[in-house]
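Take a specimen:
=====
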Amino acid sequence: MSKKHIFRFNIRDIYNRPGQMRELTHEAQLTETWGEGISRVKAGAEVGLQIRFESVHEGILATVRAATEAESECARCLKNFTQDIKVDFTELFAYNLTEDEEYGVRGDQIDLEFPLRDAVVLALPFTPVCDSDCEGLDPATGEPYESGVAVAKVPEVDPRWAALADFSIRTGSKN
């Protein structure tokens, strides 16, 4: 089964023509999930790109702005939610690939998939939070705190002093 190259672009019109430039927009659906763990961009998600290809002496300079939507699990309350992911990157695709360059022009095409995936995965939050005011889970019940509901703070008692909690001193005079 051959892989569909949804982020491969033909640059024949600007190949080896320094100073030439082409801008385009592109939308595609991912064929595989990007990212793992509690934040990822699932297969089938739409990725929108704004691309500028510039021909320079060494190769093709690609400047890309990408936008997609990630599915995440809140690190505080474990609720599933979606969030917008936007990334910008610039990458040089060399005509003559050397040890220093990571990406190159293959024939008259450029494949943006690998640098795009790297940029998107690095932009995924390490500890996603559904809301900046998320209070997380109640440690006693394990249930999410309800937003706007006042939570009674139970003072923690040092176990070494717990036996004295019921102790009371009676004062008064005996006649």
Observations:
- The first strand starts at residue 8 and ends at 10.
- The chain has a mean pLDDT of 86.
- Helices lie at 113-123.
